[in-house]
Amino acid sequence: MKKLINDVDNIVDEMLEGMVCAYPGHIRRLEGLDVIVRADESGEKVALVTGGGSGHEPAHGGYVGKGMLDGAVAGAIFTSPTPDQVYEAIKATDSGKGVLLIVKNYSGDIMNFEMASDMAMDEGIQVEQVVVDDDVAVENSTWTIGRRGVAGTILVHKITGACAEAGNDLSEVKRVAEKVIANVRTMGMALNACTVPAAGKPSFDLEEEEVEIGIGIHGEPGVNREKIEPADATADKLLAKILDENIFNNGDEVVVLVNGLGGTPLMELFIANRHINKVLGDKGIKIYKSMVGNYMTSLDMAGFSITLLKLDDELKGFLDAPCDTPALVVPAR
Amino acid sequence: MKKLINDVDNIVDEMLEGMVCAYPGHIRRLEGLDVIVRADESGEKVALVTGGGSGHEPAHGGYVGKGMLDGAVAGAIFTSPTPDQVYEAIKATDSGKGVLLIVKNYSGDIMNFEMASDMAMDEGIQVEQVVVDDDVAVENSTWTIGRRGVAGTILVHKITGACAEAGNDLSEVKRVAEKVIANVRTMGMALNACTVPAAGKPSFDLEEEEVEIGIGIHGEPGVNREKIEPADATADKLLAKILDENIFNNGDEVVVLVNGLGGTPLMELFIANRHINKVLGDKGIKIYKSMVGNYMTSLDMAGFSITLLKLDDELKGFLDAPCDTPALVVPAR
After folding, report:
1. In whole angstroms, what is the distance from residue A102 CA to residue A130 CA?
2. Which of A15, A78, A271 to mutate to test the interface with B (most CBs of B within 10 A)?
3. For B259-278, what is each residue's pLDDT tens digit?
4. Roughly what angle, to the nearest 10 degrees, separates helices B231-243 and B266-282?
């Protein structure tokens, strides 16, 4: 295993410290905890708290800031954060208007966020929860009942963050989050597995000509192991599975998120994006906005995912609203 | 070789197409050329044009936009753009106030940008040129007389771009570019080589325990091949070489750019950044701003570089000025 790390046991702690000291104007860390919160005063608004295992950087701490998240809780690598840490994040970010938890659909995350939610509600804090399950690769998986939550979560953060920033109340913010979740779908593939530092070796082995179609973001192998194909054919395969959902139709407007998994150069994501653009154009699906980059990674995994989100005027407005976080900035226009 | 590509011969063309279709509000491509220019009207101002081989994405097309570059010329992978393409970029971006060429110090780039400059000046366009040579790893290299231009180039783009956007004339914009160049230094290392698609195999071989210290951004091996050390010791080694320049002293303020080379997860860059922060703090060097991410890559190379730029009030002002490009956004405050 070749990684730019120190002690395997300190990775999350050192990573959070390195993230916070890079962006002191945006984020700070709750003392003694693996929780990132906004450095500025967010004022009286519904707070958004998310989290999950580490290894998905810039998710989730990189999306904390004005117009997006108020708190992000980091678990160990690919491991759910503990209920007490989530509870502290809720307490630290609640301004009295309540807290929405954005949880990716993994059984451990669901359980721990629910426990934290119960603890906070016992203290009189209003807490609601939404579960993101955008991955169309599988109906159930080793770690989930139902579909996994993957890169589409970033779009939930952005849009719901803008809704909260605009001063909407908790039920309204939750309604918008659920609208995004209902309209977002993702499918991914890997050229190479990632290496979890504590394991010290790749999470699965692929031959020189093999790829995995339908991977998640926790080093799990995909649904099919196949011979590598050109980028266009690979993008076709991922898109077909997403379009099979019958959500995205002629005349619809979408966001396209072409997400790198950590070890994929941007050049390759752009090559994939070119073809995605063409296929959607041929189907009369209009691209309102594209995002191409490493938004929700899986350590050093080489590969990518495609996410589509169907938009309406309300979602467009929140998508375009300004935000200012370490990993995503939308300037005021 | 496992890459998300189609035909090796079409990589640059497809990459540029995929980049432009992702950001139609920011950039467009000159028809039939490998030149990216601003999609909006930049108005009467000094134009900034840069370029170089492809494989460094998001450099350079990703930095075209308001407050940064006006044109970026893409050569074949790791290959200088041809004089005629640079000439077309100059012609397309000149508003009558002249054009500054920002060239990384590689012999091929220098030669081709100079030829283009001569062609444009023959037509009465004012053209000036600056050469970035921030890499402290080597005094000369296979492809350069003098030091190489690497990640520090991004800071030249940002600061000089703001200076041009503010309406300064060509000589003033050139003066500021040269001030940045005089005060910026970079040192990099690789955990693994990159694979140039046409070659189909890694540009050098490293054993499981080996790293290269002092690499450039074109797949060339480093100055020393060494046994892998912890992230902190690795960062110490790169920083020591930069600090040996005697530019960065107690009381100075700097930008720190921790740059991933394409295959390095953000987690590892943050771990390195933590230690860099500590070392600079111990030396009384104040970090005014940090940038951590994949800014100037080398295909899928795993590794990173550290760049320091010493700031004064003038440079701080231009650094903080708003910009809006696909790869870097600084919001108005």
Report:
1. 5
2. A271
3. 999 999 999 999 999 999 99
4. 50
d(CA B125, CA A269): 37
Evaluate if residue B307 carries a pLDDT over 80. Answer: yes
Closest residue on chain B to A227 (Cα): B2
CB contact under 8 A, A302 and B262: no
CA A311 to chain CA centroid, nearest Å:
18
Amino acid occupying residue A255: V
Q: Distance between CA atoms of A165 and B203, rounded to whole angstroms?
A: 49
Residue A56 annotated to the active site: yes
CA distance A240 to chain B (A): 18
CA distance B2 to B218: 19
Between B317 and A138, the higher pLDDT residue: B317
Q: What is the pLDDT of residue A242?
A: 98
Q: What tokens were used for B226?
A: 């060494």
- B26 annotated active-site: no
Residues in Cβ contact with B37 at an 8 Å cutoff, skipping those fewer than 6 apart: B27, B28, B29, B30, B64, B70, B71, B89, B92, B93
Choose, out of A232, A267, A320, A330, the residue to mutate when testing the contact with B (most B CBs < 10 Å).
Answer: A267
Would you say the ipTM is above 0.90? yes
Contact across the interface for A4 and B264, Cβ inside 8 Å: yes
- Active-site residue (options: B26, B60, B157, B218): B218
Q: Decide if A269 and B297 are in contact by the 8 Å CB cutoff.
A: no
d(CA B60, CA B153): 10
- Give the number of beta-carbon pairs within 8 Å between A and B: 190
Closest CA of chain B from A287, distance in Å: 9
Considering only CA atoms, which of B207, B311, B212 is closest in space to residue B256?
B311
Residues A67 and A324: beta-carbon distance below 8 Å: yes
Q: A110: pLDDT confidence band, cut at 50, 70 and 90?
A: very high
